[in-house]
Amino acid sequence: MGFAKCNQPLHENEFSEVVARHFLIFIGMDIVQKDRLIRATGAKVPFRLVLADITNSANEIGKMHGASSETLRLLAETSLASLILSSGLKFLGTVSVKVNFSGDISFSQAESTPQGLFRAMIPQDEILAAQKYEPVLSPIHFQVVTLNERGKRAGESIIDAVSESMGRNLSVYMLQSAQTNSAVGIEAKVNKNDPHKLDYAVAFYVEPYPDISGAELTTLEKQISKLPPFGEFYDGKAYSLHSLMDSISGDYNVAIVREIEPKPYCPCSKIRTLSTLASIPTADLEDLIKDNKDLELVCDFCRNKYIITPDEIRDILKDRS
Fold first, then answer.
1. Could you tell me if 250 and 306 lie in one domain?
2. How far apart are CA 27 and CA 111, in angstroms?
3. Are residues 156 and 36 in the same domain?
4. Is 311 among the domain residues?
5. How far is residue 16's CA from residue 12's CA, in Å, rounded to a whole number?
């Protein structure tokens, strides 16, 4: 059996927009809160605000990978960083965030679109190894790649990671790469009784616009500096994203511009897997069919498996002749 990456980017034109109009689903006596991505601006004071709660989706992605504890947290926080950045795209496209580490985990990567579809991965062997012990790691680089609607690179930037905090690294990235001042908070909290479950995975991003006055900026900074820990907005069952928003904005009213429901999504397919194989040199393809056995390819992002038969590889070779 063989393993290969599914490197197909997320494309905005492959799906329709999902708008979250209802936040709670009642199942029996339980209340399940939907994931939310809120984009807002100051009603009178010029600043941009993004808030995200991807708790359910992050748990779903964690389950795909068999992630727990630190790897589950990393998948969620990298996804939140990507979603914050893609929320600011002015065109249809994808934002990929990759954080490189030294230690037991080499990297964590997430990709997302402005419509809230996202996926994330950590090398599977590292996730499995981390189930046996608490991984030791230190961030090295924070890399962002932006793709346009055709999957072509529209931008790329990399900075030295300055902290173990994903929010701090994103804020420094915005300052160094986009010359943008911002305040960022990102936190995924693992359930103390179940290492395979997150209590919450939330984030906020505040960006003052250039025309904000000095007094307004000072007031906004003071308000953010007084924010309580993320856990203060979690009641043990649901996370109050709107309470977090109120605490950030303080006396400044905000206008919600857009509110959507983030969703895990991977565009991989059997056809795309065959297309990837078609890019492999002829000699390598011939080596794959020497034993006349099926080839198993696994997508790094969603863990879907695709069985490729020797005849399918021969068809690729025939097309070249």
1. no
2. 31
3. yes
4. yes
5. 8
170 shares its domain with 288: no
Mean pLDDT of 236-258: 95
pTM: 0.88
The token duo for 151 is 């999957």
How much of the chain, in percent, has pLDDT values that exceed 70? 90
Q: Are 247 and 228 in contact (CB under 8 A)?
A: yes
Q: Which residues of 236-251 are buried (b: 16+ CB within 10 A; e: fewer)?
A: eebbbbeebbebbbee
Q: Do residues 281 and 225 both lie within one domain?
A: no
Render the burial of 26-44: b for 16+ CB within 10 Å, e for the rest: eeeeeeebbbbbbbbbbee
